[in-house]
Amino acid sequence: MKFIAGNWKMNGSRAALQTMIDALRDVDTKNTVVLCVPYTMLGADAGRAALGAQDVSMHHHGAFTGEVSAEMLRDVNAKYVIVGHSERRQYHGETNDMVREKAAAAIAAGITPIICVGETMDEKQAGKTMAIIESGVRESVPENVDAPIVIAYEPRWAIGAGLTPTADEIAAAHTLIADTLKSMGLAGTPVLYGASVKGNNAAEIMSIPNVDGVLVGGASLKPDDFIPIITSVK
Ligand code: 13P
Questions:
Q1: pTM for this one?
Q2: Which residues of the chain register pLDDT less than 50?
Q3: In 88-180, where do the E strands start and end?
């Protein structure tokens, strides 16, 4: 069984989400299916999928104009939240320390964080991929986690670019993440791969050791693109 999550980023509408939910109802799969949608689309009856958000405040309540707390996400029945996506790190200056606090806020509210880590092209070219991934996991995961979490490895240079690392590169990254999680007492935590996952590469990517599923951007927006990814693995 694999974990297939879509990240709609700042796309879609409530009508588009309803179309997706309706299309997913008849999909024959045992895989976990999650749709991480803009805040305005949460609260829908997601049928056989679960809904998640794409960010959350590290604060619980108070004078933080524009922010949304983990308790508020739970109030609209969100089950997951992406934290530390590379676009949050890039455009909003989010650091591992901030991501860890957001993940802790989610866990405290009973929401499963999908914690993203990954290297930029500069870091890759400087030979720092493994160091960035390991420190990303060690610093972005809260201490003494006693609830489910999910990790997503997203090589930042490959997102939305139609580029993917080689199977060996993905295997090396995921093995490092699995080993790091094990050393933190978190063996068995699902680790997703994300960046340019499509219907024609999803099965191959999910056959790589330690790849427990995928986090899909552009190809999660339309049923015709997303369903083949879900059904590409049993
Ligand atoms: P793409 O699948 O569009 O490359 O996006 C990946 C991503 O950022 C998912 O969180």
A1: 0.98
A2: none
A3: 112-117, 150-153
- Please report the sign of the dihedral spanned by the C-alpha atoms of residue 35, residue 151, residue 91, residue 219: negative
The CA-based angle 131-196-182, given to 5 degrees, is 35
**Which residues lie across from 33 on neighbouring strands?**
4
In the set 85, 87, 101, 174, the catalytic residue is: 85
Distance CA 51, CA 99 (A): 20
Q: Given this model, what pLDDT does residue 162 score?
A: 87
Ligand 1 pocket check: which of 150, 153, 154, 198 to mutate, most ligand atoms within 8 Å of Cβ?
154
Q: Does the beta carbon of 213 lie inside 6 Å of ligand 1?
A: no
Q: How many domains would you assign to the chain?
A: 1
Is residue 101 part of the annotated active site? The answer reads no
Any idea what the CATH number is for the domain that residue 192 is in?
Answer: 3.20.20.70
At 43 the pLDDT is 96
Q: What is the pLDDT of residue 234?
A: 84
Spatial separation of the C-alpha atoms in residues 202 and 170, rounded to whole Å: 13
Name the residue range of residue 168's domain. 3-231
Distances (CA, A) of 155 to 16, 123, 163: 28, 10, 10
Q: Are 69 and 125 in contact (CB under 8 A)?
A: no
Number of alpha helices (DSSP H) and beta strands (DSSP E) in the chain: 9, 8
User: Is the beta carbon of 216 within 6 A of some atom in ligand 1?
Assistant: yes
87 included as an active-site residue: no
